[in-house]
Specification:
Elements: H1 3-12, E1 16-20, H2 27-42, E2 47-52, H3 59-68, E3 73-74, E4 87-92, E5 111-114, E6 125-128, H4 135-146, H5 152-165, H6 175-185, H7 190-197, H8 203-214, E7 217-219, E8 222-229, H9 235-243, E9 251-258, E10 261-268, H10 275-283, E11 288-291, E12 295-301, H11 305-308, H12 312-330
Parallel strand pairs: 1-2, 1-4, 2-3, 4-5, 5-6, 8-9
Antiparallel strand pairs: 7-8, 9-10, 10-12, 11-12
C-alpha cells in the first residue's frame, strides 16, 4: 500500500481530526496543516481542528494566516488527551510529543508528517523524510496523488511555504520541491503570492535586526550576535538570515531574550558545519535545539537566571558569555581568533 493510500485509509476510519502545529508555527507548518485538513475533509471527516501554541509574530506568518483565512485555535490540552475511538491526532512539521509543542510527553499520536531531524517517532502513520526541503512538499504530493481539487488558497499556501522554507529554492532544496512547485504553479494566485512575500515590517523587527548588526562578533567564517530582549521572536531568525549574507561569513548564529526564554537561530553554508548538530550538541542539555545542516534553532528556559537580575543588559551579558562559550567550544573556534565588532 502506498503512503497516500495508507494515510487515506486511516483518515477514512476517523470521525474527527485534531492537527497540532509546532510552537510558533511558520508557513511550512501552517500550509501542511491546511492541506492535511483538506485531505481529511475529502475522506469524510467533518470535525477538523488546527491548534497552535506560542505566537504568530513574524510579519509574513501573520499575513499568511490573515490573507489565506486559515482557521486556527489556541492549543487546548483537553483536545489531545482522553480521545475516544475515531478521534485522530496529527502532527505536521514536527513529530514527538513534548518536543517543540505543548502536547504532553507520551501522548499517543496517529499521524506524523515531517522533514525535521528526529528520533523515536511513534504513530500509526509516519512519513518522516529528512531529505526533502519542506513538509509542504510531502503534503503537495499527497494532495496530487489523491486527485484532490487544488484550489487557489491551498495552492498558494503550499507554494509559498515551500519557497519560504527553502529561501526561494536556494537552501535545502531537492528535486521534490521543483516537482511540487510545478504541480501547484497553475493554481496559484500570483498577486496573493507577491503580497505574502512582501509584508510590512514592524519597527520592533527593524530595531532587533539593527541590534544584531551592532553586536556582531566575527571569528573567521563564524559570526555570533544577539538582539538583547525583544518581543519580536521572529526577528531573531530574520537577523540570522541577514547576517549570514555578509561577505566572508559562512555560519551565523543569533540569540535573543523573549519572555522567559533564550531563542537561538543559526544559518550555515559551510560544508564542514551541520548547524542543527552544532546547536543540539551545544544546548540539548539545557533546552531544546537542533535542525537541518543549513538552518536550525533552539530554545533555552532562563530558569534561575530570570530571578538573578531584573536588569536586561546584565542578564544579556551573562547569557552571552555562556552561549558564546558553548558555541566556541562546539565549533572548535580558537580563543585567540581576532574579533571583528564594527559598532
Amino acid at each position: 500500500m502506498s503512503s497516500v493510500a495508507a494515510l487515506r485509509n486511516l483518515l477514512e476510519n476517523g470521525s474527527e481530526i485534531t492537527i497540532v502545529c509546532h510552537n510558533n508555527p511558520d508557513p511550512d507548518c501552517l500550509a501542511s496543516a491546511l492541506a492535511l485538513g483538506r485531505l481529511a475533509a475529502d475522506t469524510g471527516i467533518d470535525e477538523r481542528h488546527i491548534l497552535y501554541s506560542g505566537n504568530i509574530s513574524h510579519q509574513q506568518n501573520r499575513a499568511f494566516v490573515n490573507l489565506l483565512e486559515i482557521e486556527l485555535q489556541p492549543f487546548d490540552p483537553a483536545a489531545v488527551t482522553g480521545r475516544e475511538s475515531g478521534e485522530l491526532l496529527a502532527f505536521v512539521d514536527h513529530s514527538v510529543p513534548g518536543a517543540n509543542n505543548k502536547v504532553p510527553e507520551g501522548t499517543p499520536v496517529d499521524i506524523v508528517i515531517d522533514h525535521h531531524p528526529a528520533e523515536d517517532i511513534e504513530a500509526a502513520f509516519v512519513d518522516h523524510r529528512e531529505e526533502v526541503g519542506a513538509t509542504a512538499t510531502i503534503l503537495t504530493e499527497y494532495v496530487h496523488e489523491s486527485g484532490l481539487d487544488i484550489d487557489t488558497t491551498l495552492a498558494t499556501a503550499l507554494l509559498f511555504a515551500i519557497r519560504r522554507e527553502t529561501l526561494s529554492f536556494l537552501r535545502g532544496v531537492t528535486a521534490d520541491e521543483y516537482r511540487a512547485a510545478a504541480t501547484l504553479h497553475e493554481h496559484v494566485d500570483k498577486d496573493l503570492l507577491q503580497r505574502l512575500a512582501s509584508p510590512s515590517v514592524s519597527s520592533a523587527t527593524v530595531d532587533a535586526i539593527a541590534d544584531a548588526i551592532e553586536h556582531r562578533v566575527v571569528r573567521g567564517p563564524v559570526l555570533l550576535s544577539h538582539v538583547g530582549r525583544t518581543n519580536e521572536r521572529d526577528a531573531i531568525p530574520q537577523a540570522a538570515d541577514y547576517l549570514a549574507t555578509l561577505e566572508g561569513v559562512e555560519t551565523a548564529i543569533v540569540f535573543g531574550l523573549v519572555d522567559d526564554t533564550v531563542q537561538i537561530s543559526g544559518r550555515s553554508t559551510d560544508a564542514r558545519v551541520h548547524i542543527g548538530d552544532v546547536l543540539h550538541d551545544a544546548f540539548a542539555d539545557v533546552g531544546s535545539a537542533g535542525g537541518h545542516r543549513e538552518m536550525a534553532g533552539g530554545e533555552i528556559p532562563l530558569g534561575l537566571f530570570a530571578d538573578y537580575t531584573d536588569d536586561d543588559d546584565r542578564l544579556t551579558e551573562m547569557i552571552e558569555q555562556i552561549i558564546t562559550g558553548r558555541l566556541v567550544a562546539e565549533l572548535n573556534l580558537a580563543e585567540d581568533d581576532d574579533d571583528e565588532d564594527d559598532d
